[in-house]
Design a protein that fits this description.
78% helix; Na+/H+ antiporter like fold; mainly alpha
């Protein structure tokens, strides 16, 4: 019976995957017609296909297959985002990226937690835990948006880099607050800082080494014997960067992002691919990243718990509005405004205030808190669902419009 049950399960998963791909293809075409980022339509399609509506897609958030898709999909999208960044541009804005991805996460978490405390009337530690979960931005959402909406280089690359680098800070902050809330640890500024430096440093090192090695194998003048297998090398290196960093208790997401940066800037390291090979690799990466977006956001939409979300709907919406209109602007102006090297204009700062979608990373953190039965986990998950829907449906859809109004669109 067991082999037969396994076969039936495999068939069911294949059927669900086929439904997701078919739905994603039509949703992508609809997004093109509506001229909105495809992640918005994928999310809405997932909500319609989930157990709360049609029931066509029912993959539990804590299942192995869901975790596999989320981890690998986020890694690949991050790699794709890193590959689009240019080191020459990042040199101008690195101070802003470092400050906003570290101090900025704390500022956002503190303001959001304060809002949750007063609006929802929950204990202080639960409110701060909610703020920590919501504080990090989502690279899986932002990278595709900036792939489709051409924004001034340094603004787009700053926001994408922040979203990649702050996931480690967001996770560290969440578990520091969780330890205090559950009485298992005490806050230590030195310990938190050293942990952040460890995770970030090893993640950058792992990604840099594997990025250079991949470039060497596919683009070296003499030793590029794997040039024809560039997509395979890329796929293998994305997995290797994440797993090697994770095995060292470092940030796997940061590793794959840095890997993408190094491979995307391989010419600066003396490597250059032939035109047809570079085009083949780029086409492969874009197609694979599209498939990953389909799976991630359709599944994310299918897993929205409407019953849980409705319990705290009004208060949750108020908290998210404060999060979007108060916490984020305060973070941007306090962290990016003083950067004299970057010389941000008011229009650029206003755009960064609005562009900070919540998605996979906060959703995963909220799911982990539910599984651990952390204090206030249900209300945190509820407000996180609301934040995901509001930021993606409101902010992602208005990104191009706002950029046009502020004169930040590029041809």
């Amino acid at each position: 019976m067991e082999p037969a049950a396994n076969v039936d399960l495999a068939k069911h998963i294949l059927l669900v995957f086929g439904i997701i791909l078919a739905t994603g293809a039509f949703a992508g075409l609809l997004a093109q017609k509506l001229k909105v980022p495809d992640v918005v339509v994928f999310l809405l399609a997932g909500m319609l296909m989930g157990p709360g509506v049609s029931g066509l897609v029912d993959i539990p958030a804590d299942s192995m297959i869901n975790q596999l898709i989320l981890i690998f999909g986020s890694c690949y999208i991050l790699f794709d985002g890193g590959a689009t960044l240019k080191l020459k541009v990042l040199k101008e804005v690195w101070i802003t990226i470092v400050v906003i991805a570290t101090v900025g996460v704390v500022i956002t978490g503190a303001i959001t937690g304060l809002a949750a405390y007063y609006v929802l009337g929950i204990p202080v530690m639960v409110a701060l835990l909610m703020g920590a979960v919501l504080a990090s931005t989502d690279p899986a959402t932002l990278v595709p948006v900036f792939r489709q909406v051409k924004i001034r280089d340094r603004v787009a690359q700053t926001v994408m880099s922040e979203s990649a680098f702050n996931d480690a800070m967001g996770a560290i902050l969440t578990f520091v607050v969780l330890g205090i809330a559950m009485g298992t640890s005490e806050f230590s500024f030195g310990g938190t800082l050293s942990k952040l430096l460890w995770e970030s440093g090893l993640g950058i090192l792992a990604g840099g080494v594997l990025g250079w090695l991949a470039a060497f194998l596919i683009a070296h003048e003499k030793f590029n014997f794997l040039a024809e297998y560039a997509p395979v090398v890329t796929l293998m290196a994305v997995m290797g960067a994440y797993m090697s960093a994770d095995g060292l208790h470092a940030s796997g997401f940061m590793a794959v992002f840095v890997f993408g940066i190094v491979l995307g800037n391989k010419e600066m390291f003396g490597f250059e691919m032939k035109d047809h090979e570079a085009e083949k690799l780029e086409e492969y990466v874009m197609t694979t990243a599209l498939i990953m977006r389909m799976f991630i956001f359709i599944l994310l939409g299918a897993q929205v718990n409407f019953e849980l979300m409705n319990q705290y709907l009004v208060g949750g919406v108020i908290v998210v509005v404060i999060f979007m209109l108060v916490a984020r602007p305060a973070t941007v102006f306090l962290c990016a405004g003083p950067d004299r090297r970057a010389k941000w204009s008011m229009k650029e700062l206003l755009f960064m205030c609005w562009t900070r979608e919540t998605g996979v990373i906060p959703g995963a953190l909220a799911g982990m808190l539910l599984g651990m039965k952390a204090p206030g986990a249900e209300i945190i998950a509820s407000v996180t669902f609301i934040a995901i829907l509001m930021t993606i449906l409101i902010q992602a859809t208005t990104t191009k419009w706002l950029a046009g109004k502020l004169g930040l669109l590029e041809e």
